[in-house]
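Spend some time on the protein that follows and explain the fold to me:
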Amino acid sequence: MSGSTLERTDAGKLTVLMVTAFMDMVGLLMVLPLLPFFVKDLGAGGLVVGLLVSSFSIAQLLMAPVWGRLSDHYGRRPALLIGLTASAIAFVIFAFAHSLWLLFLMRIVQGAGGGTVSVIQAYVADAVAPKDRAKGLGWLSAATNAGVALGPLLGGLALNLGRSGPGLLAASLCVINIVFAWRYLRESRDMTEAAAVRSQPKVAGRSRQAVWRVVSHPAEPASRLIWIYSIAIGAFQGITSILALYLAARFGVTAHTIGYFFAYIGVLSVVARALILGRAVDRFGEARLSRLGSSLLALGLALLPFMRPADNPLLTYLPLALAVALLPLGTAFTFPCVTALLSRVVPSSERGLYMGVQQTFGGASRVLFPIVYGFLFDRVVEAPFLLGAVLVVFTIYLGRGMGAFAAQAEAKPA
């Protein structure tokens, strides 16, 4: 793997998880780019698209801490298998969703299962040495973004089989993924420690206490990292939710061609995370690289609203391609580094919990931003992009001095 090579046992565990995450993302991205077009066919606009995207995040927000505690107490593997099962059910609902309420139901079921993102991150933190966690998370992200590249193309092809084609194919792939994970995914959690955690007296409201600490102690390193993650992921997710509407309105993209744009983003994400991230972490360190990523993301968001069609196709799509490219590059450098830093500042017995708290805050952002962006998009097309750019710039300020703290944390005895 790029940068420095992971230990053989770490790489083996991570490879199986990467395959599982890749298959899950293929299914998700088979249906996600199609949602805005189906919503338009049902007579709704940007605000409803934002609400639909946010319904996923509301369910994820509520379930992420639950999945985190479950995985801390009983292991990462069972939590992941339950989450994959929820995804399969959601895809079947999507296949036969010919009304808005069924689309909302699909997103809620899918979001409840999607709370396992924190479990996947905790699995990597368990299985990979601290010095390699950013790289491990980057490789995992590369696998999921390979799914981002392939999923939309498969979804477009499956659409030729009829309205139910993408959902049924995604559900079939999810069932195969469940069988694969059941057979090959090994538990990464120290179950002796997990048993000790379960034997301890239950602390009522433990998740709420952890969430409140992030709010009440925002200057603490863990809190700052969670705020950076949640603001940046919200800004990015909000733009993703309206990207298809933006491309359709300004460049005439359709349900049959939107997959190429998402595939382009996915390919760039894979390249950045698989070939560049490891070396960049070695050279710049996680803290500096996360700030660089935020800068690229903010620049991409700021440039997108100024893209316009031209008489020459090259002059139309080349600037658009360059602006869009900054989004996957920025996120590739930001999110793995921020999550890796967070994994270092919390004890292993609470790693799943705090990864869940991170997803809770990220989920809150993913609820708010798509709704706000959808509302703004219906009125001023450029407004969501400029707002996102300003907020991501603010996260750079939040990350000041984080490099020095990371060095101090690494110097502490285990």
In short: Confidence is low (pLDDT under 50) at residues 1-6. The chain has one domain: 8-185+207-411. The chain has 17 helices and no strands. Residues 8-185+207-411 form a domain with the Growth Hormone; Chain: A; fold (CATH 1.20.1250.20).
